[in-house]
Amino acid sequence: MADLVIVDTDVERAGNTGTYRAVQFGEAIAAGQAVYQSSVDQKFYLTDSNDSAKPSNTGQAAIAVSTGGVDQQGVVARGNAVIDLGPSVMTAGEIYVLSSANVGGIAPSGDLGAGAELTIVGYAQSDALLNLTLNATGITKA
Fold it and tell me: What pLDDT, on the 0 to 100 scale, is given for residue 70?
């Protein structure tokens, strides 16, 4: 398998659960990409599970629910949120992680590459609904 193919215009909130917040993006972000908040400027940037300098594995991960450019405002989803990624994007019951293949990507857990930091994004309730858990495990895959 490969990273999820998410069409940014299909991404939206699903229900009223979880934490959503307005943020400022530090680079161009598409809805459905995984992001983290920089401790330097407090802006949100794309995660990279292969780069320990980007703290994707420190509990700061979130999923963009809106698209925006550099210094634009956006919305991100955090713990216990359910987001709709669009029809037929996932496999129900599958666990998804931050991608080790693409910056800001989300992939099935079995696709995590050796040397990547394991951050569990959540699980698929259906082929479209992703229940976010955002669990930064601190584990590097052997």
Answer: 98
Whether pLDDT at 59 is above 80:
no
Q: Output the pTM of the full model.
A: 0.93
Please provide the DSSP assignment of 3-56 as one string.
Answer: S----GGG-EE-SS-S-EEEEEBSS-B-TT-EEEE-TTT--EEE--TT-TTS-T
pLDDT at 50: 79
> Distance of alpha carbon 9 from its chain centroid, rounded?
16
Number of H helices, E strands in the chain: 0, 11
pLDDT of residue 96: 97
Q: Where are the domains of the chain?
A: 8-135
Spatial neighbors of 92 by CB under 8 A, at least 6 apart, are 124, 125, 126, 127
SS3 state of residue 58: coil
According to the model, what pLDDT value does residue 10 have?
Answer: 96
What the block records as the tokens of 25 is 């993006």
From the candidate CATH numbers 1.10.1760, 2.40.230, 2.40.300, 3.40.1350, the one assigned to the domain spanning 8-135: 2.40.300
